[in-house]
Amino acid sequence: MAAAAECDVVMAATEPELLDDQEAKREAETFKEQGNAYYAKKDYNEAYNYYTKAIDMCPKNASYYGNRAATLMMLGRFREALGDAQQSVRLDDSFVRFKNANAVMEYEKIAETDFEKRDFRKVVFCMDRALEFAPACHRFKILKAECLAMLGRYPEAQSVASDILRMDSTNADALYVRGLCLYYEDCIEKAVQFFVQALRMAPDHEKACIACRNAKALKAKKEDGNKAFKEGNYKLAYELYTEALGIDPNNIKTNAKLYCNRGTVNSKLRKLDDAIEDCTNAVKLDDTYIKAYLRRAQCYMDTEQYEEAVRDYEKVYQTEKTKEHKQLLKNAQLELKKSKRKDYYKILGVDKNASEDEIKKAYRKRALMHHPDRHSGASAEVQKEEEKKFKEVGEAFTILSDPKKKTRYDSGQDLDEEGMNMGDFDPNNIFKAFFGGPGGFSFEGRWACCSWEFPDHEPTHSLPLRQLFGSQRGP
After folding, report:
1. What is the DSSP code (8-state) at residue 185?
2. What's residue 462's pLDDT?
3. 449 φ/ψ angles, rounded to the nearest 5 degrees
4. Which of 260, 336, 263 is nearest to 304 (CA)?
5. Does residue 368 contact residue 469 with C-beta atoms inside 8 Å?
6. What pLDDT score does 60 carry?
7. Shortest CA distance to 248 belongs to which of 274, 212, 278, 284?
8. What is the average per-residue pLDDT within 217-221?
């Protein structure tokens, strides 16, 4: 039965009782018609008053009780509506029974239980069903709007609250819901204004009081954290952001920003793993938060997790196709490509900004360290591994000591285009070129001689290989 229908159409027609007082009957009918007029205008409070006057004049007329029952349902007063419906049936058993009142009361009961369980989707479902029978019930609308806000469906929640405020600008519940939407959208200052207004209308409004307190605390902590960060006091900023995160776990959008802010602090403190974790928490709360993806991607780059960095930059570029984001993605893809090659800087143990002299010194040290003759007494497995490392050291020096090849290597270009076939590379040629000649090194057999030429001195220093490199196992 559609609740918004005309009351006299909804109610079954009944034979009017023969009243002793015909004048009372006529007056009651007048009250009923006035009630119908207000009902049609959706002024249910006035309709209720006139139906009550009609009942007072003719307390045995079933249709009057039926009309008032319909009005009470619109007002959300379902227990009273059920009482009037039952009275109308007692007076006339052919009268339409108000099963809707029982159904609505059941939906209301389920909704109250589910709200406590934080099953907000189910509450919205129950309120939608209840509002089919009582479309003007503000209480049901408010509960639905509050749950929509908790589900992050802010435009829908704001629409419901705004509709109520257009009819009643002093409705504290609607003001609270309006503020709640702004609060969860991180418009905290505006949200506080609505909470304060709601508390003016209803000073004992508990939810508005709690929300107002949380909003003010969040705003203060976040601002203090930002101030500490700008002043370079990263330890204090970290503590303030952490405290802010503990204020209200339901404020998803603000908490996402707080996690990202704390991630930035951790990156400044070089706690990159913690920074990555904070940014991950931020995007879990808000998967559209570009700033968190960018911060995490940079941390991935700094920790040489290039595949993860590329994934984040791709997400950013798909969302915002700017030149800057495109360049960041290209840089990450280049570093990923470079990371899959041999790291010649790591092989030589030098920084990427190492000078020519530093590269030569590093080669000299590593070449002597891994030369096969030094490990001639080791196991076959060790000899094979050292031979491999010796070859890689030669490769590294060949590339990094040549400015042109080094530039191509640093830019991620393929070295094969230079005609280098590292598979046929002979590291001994580099070693001989580096150490060979008068006064150089010679590795032949078990013993080797080492001579240094000094000005005004004869090359008389000669050492066995064992003494040059230290004792070795072997025959």
Report:
1. T
2. 37
3. -110, 145
4. 336
5. yes
6. 86
7. 212
8. 96
Q: Structure tokens of 108? A: 């209301």
Q: How far apart are CA 237 and CA 265, in angstroms?
A: 7
Q: Which amino acid belongs to residue 335? A: E
Average pLDDT over residues 399-416: 80
* Cβ neighbours of residue 45 closer than 8 Å, sequence gap 6 or more: 75
Largest CA distance in the chain: 147
176 pLDDT higher than 90: yes
Specify the DSSP element, H or E, that contains 12. Answer: none
The model's pLDDT over 1-54, given as tens digits with 9 standing for 90+, comes to: 334 433 443 433 344 444 456 888 888 889 999 998 988 888 888 999 999 999
CB 126 within 8 A of CB 111: yes
CA distance 249 to 108: 27
Q: Tell me the HSE value of 154 on the side-chain side, using a 13 A CA sphere.
A: 15
Q: What is the pLDDT of residues 245-282, one digit of tens each?
A: 999 999 999 999 999 999 999 999 999 999 999 999 99
User: Which secondary-structure segment (H or E) carries 449?
Assistant: strand 448-450
**Type of residue numbered 396:** A
Give backbone dihedrals phi and psi of 132, rounded to 5 degrees, phi first: -65, -35
- Angle of helix 172-184 relative to helix 154-167, nearest 10 degrees? 150
Query: 144-152: which pairs have CB atoms within 8 A and are 24 or more residues apart?
Result: 145/174, 145/177, 146/176, 146/177, 146/180, 147/115, 147/120, 147/121, 147/123, 148/120, 148/124, 149/177, 149/180, 149/181, 149/184, 150/118, 150/120, 150/250, 151/120, 151/121, 151/124, 152/184, 152/252
Distance CA 159, CA 155 (A): 6
pLDDT category of residue 203 using cuts at 50, 70 and 90: very high
Structure tokens at 27: 């007056």
Task: Report, as an integer, the average pLDDT of 66-92.
Answer: 79
CB neighbours (10 Å) of residue 285?
Answer: 19
Over the range 129-156, which residues count as b (16 or more CB within 10 Å of their CB) and which as e? Answer: bbbebbebbbebbbbbbbbbbbeebbee
| This prediction's pTM | 0.63
